[in-house]
Design a protein that fits this description.
- The protein is α+β, with helices and mostly antiparallel strands and 238 residues long.
- The chain contains 9 helices and 8 strands.
- The strands form 2 sheets. Strands 5-4-3-8-7-6 form a 6-stranded antiparallel β-sheet. It has a two-stranded antiparallel ribbon with strand order 1-2.
- Strand 1 and strand 2 form a beta hairpin.
- The longest helix is centred in the middle third of the chain and has 30 residues.
- The chain is elongated and about 60 Å long.
- Keywords: DNA-binding, Transcription, Transcription regulation.
């Protein structure tokens, strides 16, 4: 099907953004994937960079810029929250622990939805709370699949290491024990777009007395099911 809008420069700019959805790209790879001439690809990529729709990574490659994330958040946040809330409630009821949904916002993570247990000792994270990307299982999930150059700057002073993030990528989930807050443990897993990009992190958290020092053994399977359910529901809505 012809997806051309009839506005040539717009179609070419969209072709560049679409190519960058797959990850960082050099000018040569942009030319190869879009079929644009080298001068045209360079001119449009630089113009998109001025509007923050395109940026550069540490190696000078083109990547999707911060404005894309801002627009995606504005367009998708209500839908993500609406899809996630009943699944978070089910996760809370299954595990008996508080459940949260985090999204990355610059150098922090923000709790955008939560389902709290109604009584007993619990870990309460208010919706809207901004937490660091240097501690906690949700932070590990939100960073683990980022390019190595972006990860590196967060590892200085972080409560986890590059080896920790490699393990998260292998097993598909993260756990933490007293990383961000003494006495609290958590387990998290990624919510993904249809292209595989990490959109958010689903977590359960609670006192170490209940989650133990091996919280993944107790709750990783349930958290993975919840994250997968949110990811599938988002794709179906789309």
């Amino acid at each position: 099907m012809d997806e051309s809008s009839g506005v040539g420069v717009l179609d070419k700019a969209v072709a560049i953004l679409t190519a960058l959805e797959a990850g960082p790209a050099t000018l040569a790879s942009l030319v190869a994937s879009t079929g644009l001439s080298r001068p045209t690809a360079h001119r449009l990529a630089v113009a998109l960079e001025r509007h923050r729709l395109v940026s550069r990574d540490g190696d000078g490659r083109f990547v999707l810029g911060p404005r894309c994330a801002e627009l995606a958040a504005a367009a998708g946040e209500d839908r993500l929250i609406g899809v996630a809330l009943p699944i978070l409630a089910k996760l809370r009821d299954t595990t008996g622990e508080s459940a949260q949904l985090y999204r990355r916002d610059g150098d922090a993570r923000v709790c955008i939805a939560a389902a709290e247990i109604p009584f007993g000792l619990r870990n309460t994270v208010p919706v809207g709370a901004r937490l660091p990307l240097t501690a906690g299982s949700a932070a590990q999930v939100l960073l683990a699949w980022e390019p190595a150059q972006r990860i590196q700057r967060f590892l200085v002073g972080a409560a986890f290491t590059a080896q920790t993030l490699a393990r998260v990528r292998r097993q598909g989930w993260a756990a933490s024990v007293a990383e961000r807050q003494p006495g609290v443990a958590s387990v998290s897993a990624p919510v993904r777009s249809a292209s595989g990009r990490v959109l958010a992190a689903v977590s359960v958290s609670g006192p170490i007395e209940r989650l133990t020092r091996n919280p993944g053994r107790l709750h990783a399977a349930a958290v993975l099911r919840a994250a997968d359910a949110i990811s599938r529901a988002l794709r179906q809505e789309a």
